[in-house]
Amino acid sequence: MPPEIVDLTHRIAVLWRQFYWLPEWAVVAIVVAVFTGAGWLVHRVVFSILRRLVKNRDLFWRGVVERARQKLRILIILIAIGFSITVSPLDPDPSASVRAVLLFLTILVLGWIVAGAVDMWAIVYMRKFNMAAEDNLVARKHITQTRILQRAAIILIGAVTVALALMTIGAVRQWGISLLASAGVVGIIAGLALQPVLKNLIAGIQIATAQPIRIEDAVIVENEWGTVEEITSTYVVVKLWDWRRMILPLSYFIETPFQNWTRETSRLIGTAMLYVDYEAPMDRLRAELERICRASPLWDGDVVNLQVTDITDRVAQVRCLASARSAPVAFDLRCEIREKMLAFMRDECPEALPRDRMTLDRARALETAGSPRPA
């Protein structure tokens, strides 16, 4: 024990002799109250200064100070109680028991503070990126990495904190050592039981580094189209087009093929298929498609094209291509192209609408049969 603490303990014992009529518990209570009050006063002064410093800052920094104030207040109180128990004239056995409990709680609070610091770092780092930008690829990349690593770090911090806290209890420490040294059967069973957890944890690290998916990526999973809404430490939430949520384990995106429409960029080329008659004037349809795209705020001004991709025994298949800045916008643009091209063919270009030539030939044959033959 440092000589300063020994000297302080001696001074308190001498002072107690002057008030010999006080019971031991009263002296301990007074010492604890004095040191706890001093710690609380220092904490209050320091955070009063910090509050003034962030008074004119935004709400985020005021929230950071408030969260730190609550956690550090608990830590300072625990340290003050532990110090006061050490220097107070308490019997060795009760003093050791109380200090063991305080050490256990202090380790838990320190882990809580470290986890909170990781959260604050993640929030401060993610504030640098704008997810509302049209091309938010870089923002999605960094935010996805940060969130996955943040959750993995918190799980690791929690496990280490609980382990260190339990190691302060002698009975638990001996039990843990004997359990590890006993037999490998328990370890094998535990390993098999923890396999899904470890599998998803490793998959989370792979996703954070390789990034097959990111926040707000447009993906097709299980034949459903949606966007990645949330990535946790064990699962991914995909928001489907009709607002349903599909929950998938992290390992799914490592082991199962899926489509990511925004892997490199958020821009997409949308496709709208039309089925027209053989006599459809392709030049007019192509010009109308260009007019529709140029007039639409959904088109990004890059790709627009119309091609005949197939011919069946009745119709010609026409593919309309147009680019957009994101997957949802591309979907809306495709719908707009279909609607306006259909209206154009119906109102201004009826010869492009599919027709049944069997019916036309039969009608012409009947018309020819009914007309008078020349003499």
Automatic annotation (TrEMBL):
Gene Ontology cellular-component annotations: membrane
Ranges annotated as spanning the membrane: 25-50, 71-90, 102-127, 148-169, 175-194
The keyword Transit peptide belongs to this UniProt entry's keyword annotation: no
Keyword terms, alphabetized: Membrane, Transmembrane, Transmembrane helix
Alphabetized GO MF terms: mechanosensitive monoatomic ion channel activity
Subcellular location: Membrane
One Pfam family in the UniProt entry: MS_channel_2nd
InterPro entries: LSM_dom_sf, MscS_beta-dom_sf, MscS_channel_2nd
Residues of the Mechanosensitive ion channel MscS domain: 197-263
Primary location class: membrane
Name the record gives this protein: MscS Mechanosensitive ion channel
UniProt organism field: Brevundimonas subvibrioides (strain ATCC 15264 / DSM 4735 / LMG 14903 / NBRC 16000 / CB 81)
